[in-house]
Automatic annotation (TrEMBL), chain A:
Family that this chain belongs to: Belongs to the iron-sulfur cluster assembly SufBD family.
PANTHER family hit by this protein: PROTEIN ABCI7, CHLOROPLASTIC
Stated name of the protein: Fe-S cluster assembly protein SufD
Domain SUF system FeS cluster assembly SufBD N-terminal: 29-168
Automatic annotation (TrEMBL), chain B:
CDD domains attached to this UniProt entry: ABC_FeS_Assembly
Keyword Nucleotide-binding belongs to the record: yes
Residue span(s) of domain ABC transporter: 3-246
Family of the protein in this entry: Belongs to the ABC transporter superfamily. Ycf16 family.
Gene3D superfamilies the record matches: P-loop containing nucleotide triphosphate hydrolases
Pfam families (alphabetical): ABC_tran
Gene Ontology molecular functions: ATP binding; ATP hydrolysis activity
Keyword Ribonucleoprotein appears in the UniProt entry: no
Protein name: Fe-S cluster assembly ATP-binding protein
Source organism per UniProt: Haloferula luteola
Record keywords: ATP-binding, Nucleotide-binding
SUPFAM superfamilies assigned to the protein according to its UniProt record, in alphabetical order: P-loop containing nucleoside triphosphate hydrolases
Length: 437, 250
């Protein structure tokens, strides 16, 4: 929480300062995290979790702390459009809250993180960034923890079902601005909530960095749906880290759409800690031109009788590049596990490149596990069929690529939400059609 | 006004000649049937007319109301008015039937003009009712998980919606039970009109009990070997395709 720093300071050079009014434990956490960030070595080619990665993307020295919010945010507010009539809507620019609109019932705690730290410090402390980051970005998670100043905290009490969707818009504005948005969602027993994070850039040509973290804690029997729509400009770099814990009989869905960014790294970790829990891990990426999306996942079956189902789909245009590395890990004693992992790549260009590394480690009996990845060009037979109905080849390919992604989006199970995701997807396809990406 | 095929020769990529000089004229207002044994080139003819890239035309011409369509791309031919009802329609995952047909209609409109969505759905539902198709087929992915009969009905639905000038139905009767066949025939018969030509490709006479052709052609070894009235189909049914051998020799 450092409002008075020079805006020219690199995020890597200057130690962050926690705002004086925030709880002492949080200041201590930030201080320790900064130390950890400094001490943790940067990833190298030899690290399994960074295999095939473009490590050049990890030079963050040119990004600036505390880039001010533009004076006129009218157009940002106007273009913060998500689902029709959301339950609550928050708009942040460079981690500063500029707009809030909530119709949530009073018993649901839904606050900007900075405010939640003041009003509900104990609740935040119990859940904020408790797990080790295991998928490679420990250093960047530490940087996030040290520098985070805002985001959203949602706490749904036992038995409360939130109707509709809570939406959070995270905008990057100003050249070389960096943001560290945090989303922390805690659901009580038998409760229900859906949150969508939108990540966008105010300008199309400004470089930016976003190191985002989402902590999802699904309490017993609850239903927690989280969506991240990453539609930054193509000058932006992104690291997005997800931590999901699913308690007994609970169900968590994590979805990510990648259309924007020059480079995006997603790390998604689901821990199935309760019997009968379920985790759906879904992703749609449509990289074009020189875009690179690097995704690492972990399905950790701690308890018996749990289900995890991962489906990641990439449609690759031009010289785009994707990496998928996923592991299903079944602990000793996690019997009757059902775990599935599928990554599918659709090549829309001969110059695109996809790496898929599915993995499986099973230490229990009586489990159903499958993993696989496929890569294919678009089917000539399908193209011929569409063209034989008068649809031009470009449009035919686009329809098929869209259909390929729709199969994932349909699993979200809510028409309004699906429409919103499709709007961002179609926007991307129309930019591809227009020659841009 | 007619679809005219003149001395059409076509070969596979490996040089195997499949069509060895097909000549045929389908005037608007008439329904023609092509019958013939497996491997005679019937399906190839339909694919070559619609522009399938797996075949190379080495000689001959195909004109639609006087316009050379061999110079056109696959989608241009469709927009010009040729429709092929596929024997094995492709499945297109994630693309709903309604969006697919809508995209095909949209492709026929001038740039900048949007299809009237309300009128579109009204028309779609009318045609689905005629074909006794459940409304749920609008939201389902094109042909995905459809039974053989459902796929064929879906082909006819597209034909009804696109209102082509010339319809080619490739073995539309194969894999249909008698009830489905009657429904499909009802759809096809609803399309018969004085300004539309139709070509039915079939192995069996059965389809022609429900869709009465004006002219029947017999195809064998890449050529039309005999042309006659509807009675020719009955004759073939009775004598079997062996009787072609005499014709080919003659």
């Amino acid at each position: 929480m450092s409002a008075t720093l020079e805006p020219t300071a690199s995020i890597l050079d200057l130690a962050p300062e926690t705002a004086p009014d925030l709880p002492a434990w949080f200041a201590e956490r930030q201080r320790a995290a900064w130390q950890r960030f400094l001490e943790t070595p940067a990833p190298t080619r030899r690290d399994e979790t960074w295999r095939f990665s473009n490590l050049k993307q990890l030079d963050f020295s040119s990004y600036l702390a505390d880039v001010p919010v533009p004076e006129d945010t009218g157009s940002i507010i106007e273009t913060s459009v998500g689902v029709e009539s959301p339950a609550a809507k928050y708009i942040f620019v460079n981690e500063t809250l500029i707009e809030i609109d909530s119709k949530l019932p009073e018993n649901v705690i839904c606050l900007p993180l900075a405010e939640a730290l003041l009003l509900h410090p104990d609740l935040v402390e119990k859940t904020f960034m408790l797990q080790d980051t295991r998928l490679g970005s420990a250093k960047w998670a530490a940087l996030h923890e040290a520098r985070v100043s805002n985001g959203l905290f949602v706490h749904v009490p036992d038995g409360v079902e939130v109707e509709g969707t809570i939406e959070v818009f995270h905008w990057l504005a100003g050249d070389r601005a960096a943001i560290f948005p945090h989303t922390l969602i805690v659901t009580g027993a038998q409760s229900k909530v859906r949150v969508i994070d939108y990540f966008q850039s105010a300008e199309s040509e400004q470089e930016g960095l976003c190191i985002a973290f989402n902590d999802l804690c699904a309490g017993p029997g609850s239903k927690l749906d989280y969506l991240a729509i990453q539609a930054f400009n193509e000058k932006t770099r992104v690291i997005q880290i997800n931590e999901t814990g699913v308690a007994k009989e609970a169900s968590a869905t994590g979805f990510i759409l990648n259309t924007g960014a020059a480079w995006a790294r997603n790390e998604a970790m689901s821990r199935l800690t309760g019997e009968g829990s379920r985790s759906d891990m879904l992703s749609v990426s449509v990289p074009a031109r020189e875009q690179e999306f690097d995704q690492r996942t972990f399905q950790h079956h701690v308890s018996p009788g749990a289900t995890s189902d991962l489906l990641y789909k990439n449609s690759l245009y031009d010289r785009a590049r994707t990496i998928f590395s996923g592991l299903i890990f079944v602990d000793e004693g996690a019997h009757r596990t059902d775990a599935y992992q599928t990554c599918r790549n659709l090549f829309m260009s001969e110059d695109a490149e996809a790496h898929s590394m599915p993995g499986l480690e099973i230490n229990a009996d009586d489990v159903k596990c499958s993993h696989g990845s496929t890569s294919a060009q678009i089917s000539e037979e399908e193209i011929f069929y569409l063209r034989a109905r008068g649809i031009d080849p470009h449009r035919a390919r686009q329809l098929i690529a869209r259909g390929f992604s729709v199969e994932v989006i349909e699993r979200l199970g809510d028409e309004k939400v699906e429409e919103t995701v499709l709007r961002f997807l179609d926007d991307k396809f129309s930019r591809i059609a227009g020659g841009g990406a | 006004m007619s679809l005219v095929i003149t001395d059409l020769h076509a070969q596979l990529e490996d040089g195997t000649e499949i069509l060895k000089g097909v000549t045929l004229e389908i005037p608007a207002g008439e329904v023609h049937a092509i019958m013939g044994p497996n491997g005679s080139g019937k399906s190839t003819l339909s694919k070559v007319i619609s522009g399938h890239e797996g075949y190379e035309v080495t000689a001959g011409s195909v004109t639609l109301d006087g316009e050379d369509i061999l110079e056109m791309s696959i989608d241009e031919r469709s927009r010009a008015g040729v429709f092929l009802a596929f024997q094995y329609p492709a499945e297109v995952p994630g693309v709903s039937n309604a969006n697919f047909i809508r995209a095909a209609l949209q492709a026929r409109l001038p740039k900048g003009q949007e299809l009237d969505a309300v009128a579109y759905y009204k028309s779609l539902y009318e045609k689905m009712d005629l074909l006794e198709m459940d409304r749920k087929f609008t939201a389902r992915a094109v042909n995905e998980g459809f039974s053989g009969g459902e796929k064929k009905r879906n082909e006819i639905l597209q034909m009804l919606m696109l209102e082509p000038k010339y319809c080619i139905l490739d073995e539309t009767d194969s894999g249909l039970d008698i009830d489905a066949l009657k429904i499909v025939a009802k759809g096809v018969n609803a399309m018969r009109s004085t300004d539309r030509g139709m070509l039915l490709i079939t192995h069996y006479q059965r389809l022609l009990d429900y869709i009465k052709p004006d002219v029947v052609h017999v195809m064998s070894a890449g050529r039309i070997v005999k042309t006659g009235g509807p009675e020719l189909a009955l004759e073939l049914e009775e004598k079997g395709y062996d009787f072609l051998k005499e014709l080919t020799v003659a």
